[in-house]
Amino acid sequence: MKLSQFQFDLPLEKIAKEPTRWRDESKLLVLHKDTGEIEHKLFKNIIDYFGKDDLFVLNDSKVFPAMLYGKKEKTGADIEVFLLRELNQEQHLWDVIVEPARKIRIGNKLYFFGDENSPVSDGLVAEVIDNTTSRGRTLRFLYDGDYGTFKESLFRLGKMPVPKWVKMPSEVNEMDAERYQTYFAKNEGSVVAPAAGAHFSRELFNRMILKDIRTTSLTLHLGTEPIFGVDLVDSEKEGIIINNEIEVEDLSKHRMESSRLVIPAECAAAVNKTKKAGHKILSVGMSTNYGLETYVTTNSEINEFDGWTNKYIYPPYKYAIADALVTNFHLPGSSLIIATAAFGGYDKVMNAYAEALKNDYRFGPYGDAMLIV
Q1: Together in a domain, 206 and 253
Q2: What is the pLDDT of residues 102-157, one digit of tens each?
Q3: Is the pLDDT of residue 173 over 90?
Q4: Which is nearest to 363 in space by CA: 336, 343, 339?
Q5: In angstroms, rounded to a whole number, what is the distance separating the alpha carbons of residues 111 and 307?
């Protein structure tokens, strides 16, 4: 299939800038993949489609405050640093993306403050020690204290990495620290929220327990691929979102960035037991689906795993593990909408997206959800 088959006009106003007041009261479009039938529900109705001993598989990755704003030495120029991953605890080394990249070179020192009036001693200083990509750098934070205090200071200076196409950095607030995150987030490492899981609330989990719906978790840390490459305005169609995540028309030529994946033994056992017993498995989010599909045995089972994955899914693809999928409404031309179409069928999923646009469903990580059963 071609990238152009997944392009559609998405007006900027369809992107949700804030989540619903209550996590489980966003809209839920239900797509029946066998018939193409569409239902309009609330997210809390999701459990109506599942019963005793069905299994919800969650991604328990936790988003950390990855956006830093600071100044470049000597010139005092404003800079942005997006923390990707920690490389070395002892030396305080981090893999980052910097803006504006052309002005940030090896040997430069960067200063980060709690606010513009704070003295240097109240912030952190980092030195650029390597170039990794056109915008990528390796930073060494110059800090003499213990690791715990350093990490606390670093995250206190950072902001939650809500994509700029959702809200600008100046709009990110304390609410985002809670809501750009799942209720069950546990293992720190993502810079993108596993958005489908963010609809689950404590109350919904309690109702699942009453119905004997079971849960298990894997961890897949989400990187920057869904964040960068998005233009807020098309030069020809003002106010239309343009997504440049995938740069090739032939989908088979795209390559996903690698992400850390951990499938605990108890997760693998729960999935395999559920399949063997003939009960349904719901993948909560496309990130979970990538994890489940990464290493499937010839018997359609999964094993305990701790490593990296660059799993990429596009039609035609036969999913081996999940019977159902819940996921948010994604940007046009994104790897996420492409993988969703592989699950629900291209024509049916694209028709569901057209219905969502007609019925004022909200797109993006703070938006509404689609259940494919």
Answers
A1: yes
A2: 889 999 999 998 655 444 446 899 999 998 877 889 999 999 888 999 999 999 89
A3: no
A4: 336
A5: 34
- Please give the Cα distance from 18 to 28 (Å, whole number): 17
Does residue 230 share a domain with residue 125?
A: no
Token pair listed for 27? 């809209």
Nearest to 280 by CA among 214, 199, 202: 214
Q: What mean pLDDT do residues 298-308 have?
A: 95
Amino acid at 159: K
Q: Residue 74, exposed/middle/buried by CB under 10 A (0-12, 13-18, 19+)?
A: exposed
Pairing of strands 259-263, 230-231: unpaired
Spatial distance between the Cα atoms of 130 and 187, rounded to a whole number of angstroms: 28
* 239 Cβ contact list (under 8 Å, min separation 6): 11, 12, 13, 233
Beta-bridge mates of residue 219: 262
Cis peptide before 316 (omega within 30 of 0): yes
Highest mean pLDDT among 27-36, 133-142, 158-167: 27-36
186 and 284 inside one domain: yes
- CATH code, domain carrying 86: 2.40.10.240
Number of structural domains found in the chain: 2
Closest CA to 283 of 337, 233, 319, 240: 319
Half-sphere exposure of 208 (CA within 13 A, CB side): 23
Ordered alpha helix ranges (H), the chain: 147-157, 174-179, 202-210, 265-277, 286-294, 335-344, 346-358
Residues 296 and 330 in one domain: yes
Per-residue model confidence (pLDDT) at position 40? 98
- 171 within domain boundaries: no
Q: 355 and 31 in contact (C-beta within 8 Å)?
A: no
Q: Are residues 55 and 83 in the same domain?
A: no
Tens-place pLDDT, residues 184-238: 999 999 988 999 999 999 999 999 999 999 999 999 998 765 455 455 555 456 6
| pTM, two decimal places | 0.90
- Does one domain contain both 49 and 75? no
Mean pLDDT in residue range 169-182: 90
